[in-house]
Amino acid sequence: MPHTARPARNVFEPRNPDWDATVRASFARQKVMTLIGAEIGELKPGRCEIRLPFRDDLTQQNGFFHAGITSTIVDSAGGYAGLTLMTAGSDVLTVEFKLNLLAPADGEFLVAEGQVLKTGRNLVITRGEVYAIKNGRATHCATMQQTLMTMHAKENK
């Protein structure tokens, strides 16, 4: 008989009581997010959504969002999903990520969703998905797997 049970969705408890304020303050310091016009959407322990409205200067030669822009927002979505679960005084740094581009990022805006898969003392594994929203319809345009490093007792500049 085939196995039909679906795995339970990961539920994590934050280790920093001020995780929401910590993530939002870090996002505000990340000047590239301001430069491209990205904003935090939904934010929960172990999850972060980043939204990016279309702008012509964020496109490649065919008028789609550039892959570099797509990867920038999903990298940050995964990173901030991880930061929601790190201890107070910590910061986050991406160690590596792999991105698969599944369809042209053609839409009025992009939504990047980061979700923690596994958290440890020093490393956090996340996945990210990017959707291009056009005429109310979402097209899954990219998927990412990422490894983050916890920067313990990091002083923010």
Task: Provide a compact summary of the structure.
The chain is an alpha+beta fold and 157 residues long.
Write the layout of secondary structure elements.
Layout: H1 19-29, H2 31-36, E1 39-44, E2 47-53, H3 67-83, E3 91-101, E4 109-119, E5 123-134, E6 137-151
Antiparallel strand pairs: 1-2, 2-4, 3-6, 4-5, 5-6
Write up what this structure looks like.
- The protein is an alpha+beta fold.
- It has a single domain (19-151), classed as Thiol Ester Dehydrase, Chain A (Roll).
- Helix content is 22%, strand content 39%.
- The chain has 3 helices and 6 strands; from the N terminus they run ααββαββββ.
- The chain has a 6-stranded antiparallel beta sheet.
- A hairpin with a 2-residue loop joins β5 and β6 (137-151).
- The longest helix has 17 residues, at 67-83.
- The N and C termini lie far apart (57 Å).
SSE succession: HHEEHEEEE
Shape: globular
Tally of separate domains: 1
CATH hierarchy, class? Alpha Beta
In total, how many beta strands? 6
Instruction: List low-confidence stretches.
Output: none
| Rg, Cα atoms, Å | 16 Å
Provide the CATH superfamily.
Hotdog Thioesterase
Structural class: alpha+beta
Distance between the termini: 57 Å
Q: How many strands, which pairing sense, and closed or not: the largest β-sheet? A: 6 strands, antiparallel
Helix content estimate: 10-25%
